Amino acid sequence: MQDTPLGVEEARRRLPELLERASAGEAFVIQRHKKPMAALVPIGGQPPNDPLERQRQIQSLMSLQGSGRGCWDPNQRHPARPAATAPDLVQPLDSSNAFSPGQLVRGSRIALDGSALVAFLADAKGTGKYLEPIMQGIAQGTWQGVISSVSLAGVLEGPLAQGDEALVQRYITAFARAQQWRQVPADGALVLAAARLQRQEPQLEAIQALELATAIASEAAVLVTDHPALAQTGQHPVLSALRL
Description:
Blueprint: E1 3-7, H1 8-13, H2 15-23, E2 27-32, E3 35-40, H3 51-62, E4 109-112, H4 114-122, H5 127-140, E5 144-148, H6 149-161, H7 165-177, E6 181-184, H8 188-200, H9 206-217, E7 222-225, H10 228-231, E8 238-240
């Protein structure tokens, strides 16, 4: 069972969420000035071992691939691009360049920004299939997924625009409540870090800067993105769904 480190203030702010996730098997180490002070663990100290429940969780996450087709407006500046839109931003993906899970060690954190998650959900230009090994690895617990609250808002925007409340709740459960994912709120420290990143890379919009700051603050091994500006950043390792 991998322990997730949290600061004291973050743990206090997110206590109801953390209790729910701990009851599902996740463990958290609470730090002060980066020094471990206490732990929040499930009773018994072990996650559920029911293989059927584990398989159900994996299937639930993987079934999201393509679930959001048609949800996002193709006329947005940076939409989740269905097959016929914005060919200059989303290129067809060559199966010979598929992501190799061996590139990341077990236990790594993988940050996915809103554009990558939306591309997976809409299966834009086959991006869903390309990202499938990453999502499956997160679902199986090989890696931990990291998503910012800003990214989650972008994910929910599509089904909300369509009035599909059932899909909204499905996404909330998958990304905000599942133990395989860590949701990072955009607090003052993160906003300041994003503002500093924008000064270094002016091509980044506020949302992209926040998502990049989230990946850095979470110590993610890589940021997965479907956004052209983030794909070119030199501030953090990036796995681009546009190109490798």
